[in-house]
Amino acid sequence: MTQTNGTAHTEHTDATPLFEVDDLHVSVEGREILRGVNLRVRPGEIHALMGRNGSGKSTLANALMGHPKYLVTSGRVRLDGEDILGLKPDERARLGLFLAFQNPISIPGVGTGNFLRAAVKAVRGTESINAVQFRKELNERMQRLQMDPSFATRALNEGFSGGEKKRAEMLQLAMLKPRLAILDEPDSGLDIDAVRIVSEGINLVHEQQPETGLLLITHYQRILNYIKPDTVHVMVKGRIVESGGAELVQELESAGYAPILRRLGIEDEEEAPVSGR
After folding, report:
1. Sign of the C-alpha dihedral, residues 131, 145, 207, 20?
2. Shortest CA distance to 84 belongs to which of 102, 100, 73, 96?
3. Mapping DSSP to helix (H, G, I), strand (E, B) and coil, where does residue 216 land?
4. In Å, what is the CA distance from 224 to each residue of 41, 67, 174, 185?
5. Which residues, in sequence order, are bridge partners of residue 3?
6. Dist. CA 263–CA 271, nearest whole Å
7. Which domains does the chain possess?
């Protein structure tokens, strides 16, 4: 066992999963969205989860983090061998789970630097750093993310552009040092330059925290031009129906989802004939 952030962690071998999702079923307002998701992430691996709108990707992210709107009806989720479904979101965070939001909210009156200092203290616990060390680390991380130093004094996400909000999420990722990070569409709404900068931030975390597992949720290939996943998954109708390597990204980019669905015998609702036509 090892001790990190005040929490005991299992020593991993190459074959030991860091994060395990088994037959996860999730409902929202009485409607089943996830219909048996299975996933394994080993330490240091980058997994990309792709799928059309409405396939269940963001539902998975929110359910894994413990959002109360998302009701887990069956299945199991383990981080470092510990079942986390009975834990509150803050308890999951202290155990080492992190979620970067697709649409980060603004918190007026709360400075970004102060927010991060409180978050680091809450999550990293006994590994927490003093004020001088924190400011030095924060400045270094912001510089690498090409963020102006004044960023730390601005209210969190208030008046931020889309790119600034996503960089603020990557700054949190870098400072909190999670065991498993779920990145829900970090490229959403960004221009090419912002995608590159955010991608560099993700790659920086991967370099400096090589044991951290990453689950990157995205619609598009473009962010995967900068971040190289070990495994790519395709989600359809609340299930992961296909997994592979980089070649799967190229297939999706060139031909879309329809050929995969036909190969698997799954009805493509976007191509289904409309009644009466």
Report:
1. positive
2. 96
3. strand
4. 18, 27, 20, 12
5. 8
6. 15
7. 2-104+177-264 (3.40.50.300)
Tokens of 127: 């590994």
Task: Give the pairing type, strands 180-184 and 213-218.
Answer: parallel
Per-residue pLDDT of the chain (277 residues; tens, 9 = 90+): 444 444 445 555 456 799 999 999 999 999 999 999 999 999 999 999 999 989 999 999 999 999 999 999 999 999 999 999 999 999 999 999 999 988 888 899 999 999 999 999 888 775 667 888 899 999 988 888 778 888 899 999 998 888 888 889 999 999 999 999 999 999 988 888 889 988 988 998 899 889 999 999 998 888 999 999 999 999 999 999 999 998 899 889 888 888 888 988 888 776 544 433 3
> Encoding tokens for residue 30?
């009485």
Return the closest-CA partner of residue 232 out of 219, 207, 249.
249
- What single-letter DSSP state applies at residue 276? T
In angstroms, the first-to-last Cα distance of the chain is 63
Burial class (CB in 10 A: 0-12, 13-18, 19+), 237: middle
DSSP characters over 14-46 = TTS-SEEEEEEEEEETTEEEEEEEEEEE-TT-E
Distance CA 103, CA 168 (A): 12
**AA identity, residue 14:** D
CA-derived radius of gyration, the chain: 19
Which residues are paired to 164 by β-bridges? Answer: none
